[in-house]
C-alpha cells in the first residue's frame, strides 16, 4: 500500500545511486518542506548491502531547482537566455539540418556519456545513424574502460568488466588490485577487500601512491607511472622460471602461449626492477602470494589502462592470469573495475563509434542486417565506424561542424583540455543536453534541461554485468524533459516520425530485440524481472539453455549460479548476486507486491504499472526464462574455438618520457568527495566542504628542492599548458611523481596538462602519465624551476 501525507506520496522507492558503476541500492522517500527526497538504506541489494558513500547520501541535493537547469537556454547576441522548448528544439534541428545539407551527414557529430541509461545510449546511437546518417558518434566512456574492453575481447572474445559477481572477491585466495583506489573511488566496495583479508586471503595493491586502499594491502608495489606493462611481464617471467604455470590448463583452455612466454622471458627481474622501481624481492613475494592459493584474481582500473599502451598492459595482466590457470575457474580470473555509473551498459548498445546494440560490430554484415531489421531500415543505409572520442573532439570546427552532446563535460574531462575547449568554441553549432550548466554547456548555442536519476525510470548495467532497474521516485521540475523526449522531438523535426518512443520500457523492449543473439544479449530481460530479481546478469537470452538450441557463434556458457566449473567437483556457491530477494526489504526494496503505485510517483510505462503476471519471464509460453549469467567462461571462452588467447606483448616507454625540460611525471585521479568532471558534485555543499579544490601532491624531497611549504601555490607545466594549485606534501607518493585530481575547471584543471597520445587499439588517451616541470607559482607571477628529482 502506498503511504500518503497531506496528499503527497511518502512511500519509499527502491532505486540506485546516480554515480559510480557499483550502482548501489538505495531507497528514496519524498519529504515535505524544502527537501525533495531523502535517502535511506536498502539492505536487500547485494552489492552494497545498505552502505553508501558521501556522494550517494547527498545525491538528492542535485534535485534542487537551485543547482540545476529548469528551462531551455538559447544563445542570443552571444548570451544564453531562457527560451521555450519549441524554440530550443527548433534551433537544434535547424542547426543539425543546416550542417548536414551544407557539408554532409558526417559533419554532424554526436557525443554521449557513460552516465546515460541503457535506453538513452541505445536511442542516441540509433538517432545518430538513422536520423542524422552520421558515423561520427562516440562517448566519454572511451576515456574510461576502453583499454580493458579491448584487452578482454582480444583474450576472451568478450568484454564484461567483471566476469563474476563481487561476492566472489572475499572468497578468493589473493587479489592483485592494479591502479585502483577503491577507498576513494568506490568506498562501499572496500568491504569486499576487508572481508577478503578477514577470510585469510591476501591483497596486493599496485599503485605509485600509497593510497588509503594501498594502506590495507599485505603487499604494496609502487611502480613508476607507465611501467605496469613491464611489471606484469616481470611477474610472468618469475612464474615461468619458478615452475608455477598451470600446464594442463594452458594446454586445454588456451592458445598462443609459446609467443607470450617468449615475450615474458625477455623481461628478467633485474631488468624489470630498473624499469619499474619495484625490487626483485617484492616481485618474488608478489608471485608467491598470487600463485600459492587455489584461487586468485587480478582486478585492473584506470591506472594501467589510461595509457597509449593500455590494451597491451591489460593483456599482460590477463596473460599472468591465464598462465596460472585462473580465468573460468571458481573465485578466480581477471576483471576490470568499470568506473562510470553505466560505464558497462553504455559501451554495449551503440553509442560507441564502431558498435551496434548487443555489443555487435558495426562492420559485421550479419550484425548490420539484424539491427537494420529491428530498426526498419536498409542495412546499406547505416554508416560505418567513425572517429573515437578524442579524435572526434579534435576534428570539431574542421571536419565536424555541429555537435549534439549529452551527459558529458569534455571541457574538464578531455585530455589536452584547453585545445578541446578551443575546438568546441570553433563549432558552427553546439547543442548540449544536461542536468546542470556545465563548463561545456556554457559554450553551447542551445542548452536543454533534462531529467536525472530520481525523476525517470530506466536501466543501467553495473560493473558486474548486472542489469538493474532505476525507478522514478519524484516528478521533475516543470520545464524539464527527458533525453528520450529530446531525441523523439528532434527525430520528428528532422523527418523521422516513428521509432523514437519516450517511454523507457518501450525503448528497452526494442533494445532487447536488437541485442538478441549478440555478445551482450538482453533479450531474456524484462523490467518485471529486474524489479523482482534485483537485477539480471547478461548474457540472458530469451530462453533457458535447456529449452533452446546452443546460441549461434562463440557465446560463453550461459550458466546459472550452481553450475560446475571445469576442474571442480561440486557446484559453485549460490549467493545473493544471482536472484535477489523475492520479499520486499526495508522501504519496499526488491519485489513487486501487486499494489498499484500512485500515478504522481511512477510514470506511465513503469514496470509496476504495466507488467502483468504473464511478463514474469521472458521466454515463450511454457518455456522457462534464462537465469542470466553471473559467472562467465566456466566451460568455454567466447572465442571461435572456445579457448582464451594469450597475446604476446612487450614493454615500451611512455609516449612522453621525462627529460631535462620536463623532469617529473604527472599522474591524475579522483578524490572521495568529487566525481568525474565535478559538474554535479561541485554543486553539493557537503562535498565541496570535504574537497573544495584542486591540489598538487608531491614528495617532501621534491618540495624541499623547490623550497615549497604545505599550501603554497605550485605551477605544473607540460607541453600542452599550465595548471596552478596548492601544494600537498606527503611521503605517500614517489619522489619522481606528482599527482593532481581532475575534477575542477579553471587554472587548476589537471587535464590542461594531460597527453592525448592514443592507444592504437582502444584509442584511449594517455591520461595517467605525462612529463611536466613543477615550479613555485609566485603571487606576483614569478616562478622557480624544479630540479631533476633525486632517486
> How many β-strand stretches?
33
Biggest sheet character: 7 strands, mixed
Low-confidence runs (pLDDT<50, min 5 residues)?
A: 4-8, 547-618
Helical segment count: 23
Description:
The strands form nine sheets. A seven-stranded mixed beta sheet has the order 7-6-20-19-18-8-9, with helices on one face. 26% of the residues lie in helices and 17% in strands. The termini are far apart. By secondary structure, the chain is of the alpha/beta class. α2 packs across α18. This is Nitrite reductase.
Summarize the structure.
This protein has 791 residues and is an alpha/beta fold. Helices cover 26% and strands 17% of the residues. The model is unreliable at 4-8 and 547-618 (pLDDT under 50).
Key features of this structure:
single chain, 791 residues, alpha/beta, seven-stranded mixed beta sheet, 17% strand, globular, iron, NADH dehydrogenase activity, metal-binding, 4 iron, 4 sulfur cluster binding, iron-sulfur
Task: Lay out the secondary structure.
Elements: E1 4-5, E2 8-9, E3 13-16, E4 25-30, E5 37-40, H1 54-57, E6 73-76, E7 79-82, H2 85-103, E8 108-112, H3 118-132, E9 137-139, H4 146-156, E10 174-178, H5 182-185, H6 190-198, E11 202-206, E12 219-221, H7 228-241, H8 247-253, E13 254-255, H9 257-265, H10 269-276, H11 280-291, E14 297-300, H12 302-305, H13 310-323, E15 333-336, E16 355-356, E17 360-361, H14 365-375, H15 389-394, E18 402-406, H16 410-413, H17 417-425, E19 429-434, E20 446-449, E21 458-461, E22 466-470, H18 483-493, H19 504-515, H20 527-533, E23 536-537, H21 607-610, E24 644-645, E25 664-669, H22 685-690, E26 696-698, H23 700-706, E27 713-718, E28 721-729, E29 737-741, E30 755-758, E31 765-766, E32 770-777, E33 783-785
Parallel strand pairs: 8-9, 8-18, 10-11, 10-14, 11-12, 13-24, 14-15, 18-19, 19-20, 25-29, 26-28
Antiparallel strand pairs: 1-2, 3-4, 4-5, 6-7, 6-20, 16-17, 21-22, 22-23, 25-32, 27-28, 27-32, 30-31, 32-33
Helix pairs in contact: 2-18, 3-18, 3-19, 4-13, 7-9, 7-10, 7-11, 7-13, 14-19
Pfam families: Molybdop_Fe4S4, Molybdopterin, Molydop_binding
Region (Disordered): 541-631
GO molecular function: 4 iron, 4 sulfur cluster binding; metal ion binding; molybdopterin cofactor binding; NADH dehydrogenase activity
